[in-house]
Specification:
DUF1059; alpha+beta; 3 strands; about 70 residues; globular; about 35% helix; DUF1059 domain-containing protein
């Protein structure tokens, strides 16, 4: 039974060395945490992510049992 979602930065192409990961109850929470991580750890501005980038990142969010 899925009751949480997770994202591991190391699964993203080019970020294999990053240990950052998040797990939350909803996908929306995961997105917010991913964006915060990108800002703090990688100096990225998620507002500048293209739809293509967002679509790719969405494939890296996985359902998990917590």
């Amino acid at each position: 039974m899925t009751n949480a979602f997770t994202y591991a930065c190391r699964d993203c192409e080019g970020m294999e060395a990053c240990p950052g990961s998040v797990t939350a109850e909803t996908q929306e929470e995961v997105w917010r945490l991913m964006e915060l991580h990108a800002q703090m750890a990688h100096n990225e501005d998620p507002a500048e992510w293209t739809q293509e980038t967002r679509d790719y990142l969405a494939t890296l969010i996985r359902p998990v049992s917590a």
